[in-house]
Amino acid sequence: QKEVEQDPGPLSVPEGAIVSLNCTYSNSAFQYFMWYRQYSRKGPELLMYTYSSGNKEDGRFTAQVDKSSKYISLFIRDSQPSDSATYLCAMTRFNAGKSTFGDGTTLTVKP
Amino acid sequence: EAGVTQFPSHSVIEKGQTVTLRCDPISGHDNLYWYRRVMGKEIKFLLHFVKESKQDESGMPNNRFLAERTGGTYSTLKVQPAELEDSGVYFCASSQVQGSSPLHFGNGTRLTVT
Lengths: 111, 114
Hints:
The complex is a heterodimer.
Chain A: E1 4-6, E2 11-14, E3 19-25, E4 30-38, E5 45-50, E6 54-58, E7 61-66, E8 71-76, E9 85-93, E10 99-101, E11 105-110
Parallel strand pairs in A: 2-11
Antiparallel strand pairs in A: 1-3, 3-8, 4-5, 4-9, 6-7, 7-8, 9-10, 9-11
Chain B: E1 5-7, E2 10-13, E3 19-24, E4 31-37, E5 44-50, E6 53-56, E7 65-68, E8 75-79, E9 88-95, E10 104-105, E11 109-113
Parallel strand pairs in B: 2-11
Antiparallel strand pairs in B: 1-3, 3-8, 4-5, 4-9, 5-6, 7-8, 9-10, 9-11
């Protein structure tokens, strides 16, 4: 069983829709939770970074962490065609170097 | 600040040949990581340098892969001899602090072994 499972997608939504992207994990040692966005032929770029359970908001993006359920989500409000990309969740143990990634969810926002 | 840069962006080699990938991290980032994504799979950790020392190389698939970071600046990842299953995208990332700071990725080297 993988340590991190990500909803596979792909997702296709109309412009302006609310998007929900989700990951579950099995290892309670994960303490840091990240969402990366990756455009085609580019490297992942950090979108959101959280440590504790709860919500963190940045513009149209909200990251949600529920450590008791081992579940994280990324919400995108008022989605735009420029949000079309692959979204990756990633997690890191405390004081550890490596991150463990989900498979990624490809999102297409149609104008 | 300049981001993480990787060279080459794309490499096509034949099975049995040698390829060397290079990564220049963000200046001042002591932590440097190599990751790989093969077709249809998730991005997987290969190894982690702190300055010039290998902190964790648990993800290196076998002894055909050799990573170095002389002087604690840029890093190279050599594959020798390359096999078909080595094809994929190799990402380098760097961070300031181990674990508690997120990764800054390069755009990757797309390796195709034929």
